[in-house]
């Protein structure tokens, strides 16, 4: 069909946007040969990253992370539960990653995205195996009560490098997390102290006196890169991810 | 360096006994069963079928993977395996030959005794060959497990995975090429194709040197695996022609 000729003849006359839509790979390769990308980033540079802690006031810990346009909101809610018998003095973390339809035109309500459970599992694997959190810190009364941290991450805008932004927001949410004050009442149950002062009427000793933070050890950090022919691009956008094959 | 003792008496570099059989399901266009020791996986290929899924590129063939666990419901783990398998198979298939078609690969876990993902990749590859889907080269998968003291052991069993797992890596390499064409045409950037790597999935904490050690051990073992694969896929040919209806 003579496609190469077509693009060669028209490229001088076609608008940049049209060329970008019709021949995306050629458009990108023209840029890569000059060692730059369409958004004026050099090949090894990541996009501007911002992080805001405490984005969700009602959660025990939360963070909003933005890498370029990719936006992730992470929030942690703590609940008391009884620990399992094979690890009686350890708490538990449940991590879930959601991609609601707001994040991208390819996500439609009702049809779950392929990427969401995969990123969710990779996130839990990374956070649990990196040793960032010592689960023993989440224990309250050994064998009877421990904290369960529910971490939910919502993708608000999917523009490439989803795992990086999600991991960043998860780690930030954990760093912002403050474990609420609880006390043990007569039935042996743990009761959470509510914010509005019960003041001096507390005749029972709180199990933890003040809101404490978790100590985080090694923080995991990730960078997504794409290998395309001879070029390695760091932190790809969604457009780059969809045209270049090797992630 | 001390030798590490493995429960079944293998050396750190030794793989479990391999078995591969093709054309076991008669309705599927291609099928294969692959077992490494007690881990056994069955793979079936249906395709190419017309049409691609909604968000896929119609100018290329599409590969769809369905992973069926032995017991339990399909959860995130299965979805992750599906995505890894899909990406791996996409890079070995020649996708431009049959554009706008879908090839379905269904993987059924028969028994899981460690190194499940590698077994599945090998089975899927053999099933693709059995179905006659055009592929550039075969994929050979190896699982390397890193023990606490820094030893790399290949092809762990389930027990070894649970006890020793400081980290493990699933590596997929292209198989060695025996060809009638002259040497020069097979080199990619001056290096033979089999020095490349297709997929690498790691779990757990490991340092860069440990990862590179896993890579070179896995690479050395992949040569043996690819010979086995080649032999087992060749043998079936004479009997196949007599089965033609």
TrEMBL record, chain A:
GO cellular component: cytoplasmic exosome (RNase complex); nuclear exosome (RNase complex); nucleolus
InterPro entries in alphabetical order: ExoRNase_PH_dom1, Exosome_comp_Rrp42_subfam, PNPase/RNase_PH_dom_sf, Ribosomal_Su5_D2-typ_SF, Rrp43
Gene3D superfamilies documented for this protein: GHMP Kinase, N-terminal domain
Gene Ontology molecular function terms on file: mRNA 3'-UTR AU-rich region binding
Compartments (UniProt record): Cytoplasm; Nucleus, Nucleolus
GO biological process assignments: exonucleolytic trimming to generate mature 3'-end of 5.8S rRNA from tricistronic rRNA transcript (SSU-rRNA, 5.8S rRNA, LSU-rRNA); nuclear mRNA surveillance; nuclear polyadenylation-dependent rRNA catabolic process; rRNA catabolic process; TRAMP-dependent tRNA surveillance pathway; U1 snRNA 3'-end processing; U4 snRNA 3'-end processing; U5 snRNA 3'-end processing
Domain Exoribonuclease phosphorolytic: 46-180
Chief location: cytoplasm
CDD domains per record: RNase_PH_RRP43
Nucleus recorded as keyword: yes
Presence of keyword rRNA processing: yes
PANTHER family the record matches: EXOSOME COMPLEX COMPONENT RRP43 (PTHR11097:SF9), EXOSOME COMPLEX EXONUCLEASE RIBOSOMAL RNA PROCESSING PROTEIN (PTHR11097)
Family to which this protein belongs: Belongs to the RNase PH family.
Protein name per the record: Ribosomal RNA-processing protein 43
Organism classification: Eukaryota, Viridiplantae, Streptophyta, Embryophyta, Tracheophyta
UniProtKB/TrEMBL annotation, chain B:
UniProt keywords, alphabetically: Exosome, Nucleus, rRNA processing
Subcellular location, record wording: Nucleus
CDD domains: RNase_PH_RRP46
Gene3D superfamilies: GHMP Kinase, N-terminal domain
Domain Exoribonuclease phosphorolytic: 14-134
Main location: nucleus
Keyword Nucleus belongs to the record: yes
UniProt xrefs under InterPro entries: ExoRNase_PH_dom1, ExoRNase_PH_dom2_sf, PNPase/RNase_PH_dom_sf, Ribosomal_Su5_D2-typ_SF, RNase_PH
Domain of life: Eukaryota
PANTHER family: EXOSOME COMPLEX COMPONENT, EXOSOME COMPLEX COMPONENT RRP46
Name of the protein described by the UniProt record: Exoribonuclease phosphorolytic domain-containing protein
Protein species of origin: Hevea brasiliensis
């Amino acid at each position: 069909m003579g496609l190469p000729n077509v693009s060669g003849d028209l490229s001088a006359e076609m608008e940049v946007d049209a060329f970008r839509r019709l021949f995306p790979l050629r458009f990108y390769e023209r840029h890569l040969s000059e060692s730059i990308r369409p958004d004026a980033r050099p090949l090894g540079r990541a996009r501007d990253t911002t992080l805001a802690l405490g984005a969700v006031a009602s959660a025990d810990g939360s963070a909003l992370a933005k890498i370029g346009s990719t936006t992730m909101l992470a929030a942690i809610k703590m609940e008391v539960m009884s620990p399992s018998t094979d690890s009686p003095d350890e708490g538990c973390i449940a991590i879930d990653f959601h991609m609601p339809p707001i994040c991208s035109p390819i996500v439609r309500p009702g049809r779950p995205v392929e990427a969401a459970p995969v990123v969710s599992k990779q996130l839990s694997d990374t956070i649990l195996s990196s040793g960032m959190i010592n689960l023993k810190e989440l224990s309250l009364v050994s064998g009877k009560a421990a904290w369960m941290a529910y971490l939910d991450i919502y993708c608000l805008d999917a523009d490439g490098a989803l795992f990086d932004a999600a991991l960043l927001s998860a780690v930030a949410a954990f760093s912002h997390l403050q474990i609420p004050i609880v006390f043990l009442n007569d039935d042996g149950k743990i009761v959470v102290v509510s914010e509005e002062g019960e003041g001096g009427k507390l005749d029972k000793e709180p199990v933890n006196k003040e809101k404490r933070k978790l100590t985080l050890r090694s923080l995991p950090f990730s960078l997504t890169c794409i290998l395309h022919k001879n070029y390695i691009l760091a932190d790809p956008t969604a457009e780059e991810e969809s045209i270049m094959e090797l992630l | 360096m001390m030798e590490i003792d493995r429960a079944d008496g293998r050396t750190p570099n030794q793989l479990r006994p391999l078995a591969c059989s093709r054309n076991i399901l008669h309705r599927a266009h291609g099928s294969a069963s692959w077992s490494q020791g007690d881990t056994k996986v069955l793979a079936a290929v249906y395709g190419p079928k017309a049409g691609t899924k909604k968000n896929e590129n119609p100018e290329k063939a599409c590969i769809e993977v369905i992973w069926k666990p032995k017991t339990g419901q399909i959860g995130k783990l299965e979805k992750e395996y599906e995505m890894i398998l899909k990406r791996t198979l996409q890079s070995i298939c020649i996708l431009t030959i049959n554009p706008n078609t879908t090839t379905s690969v269904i993987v059924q876990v028969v028994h899981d005794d460690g190194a499940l993902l590698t077994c599945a990749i090998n089975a899927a590859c053999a099933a693709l060959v059995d179905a006659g889907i055009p592929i550039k080269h075969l994929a050979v998968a190896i699982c390397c497990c890193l023990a606490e003291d820094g030893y790399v052991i290949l092809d762990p069993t389930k027990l070894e995975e649970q006890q020793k797992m400081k980290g493990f890596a699933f590596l997929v390499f292209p198989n060695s090429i025996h060809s009638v064409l002259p040497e020069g045409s097979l080199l990619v950037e001056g290096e033979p194709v089999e020095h490349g790597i297709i997929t690498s999935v790691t779990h757990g904490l490991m340092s860069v040197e440990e990862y590179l050690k896993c890579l070179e051990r896995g690479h050395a073992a992949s040569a043996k695996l690819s010979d086995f694969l080649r032999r087992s896929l060749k043998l079936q040919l004479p009997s196949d022609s007599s089965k033609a209806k």
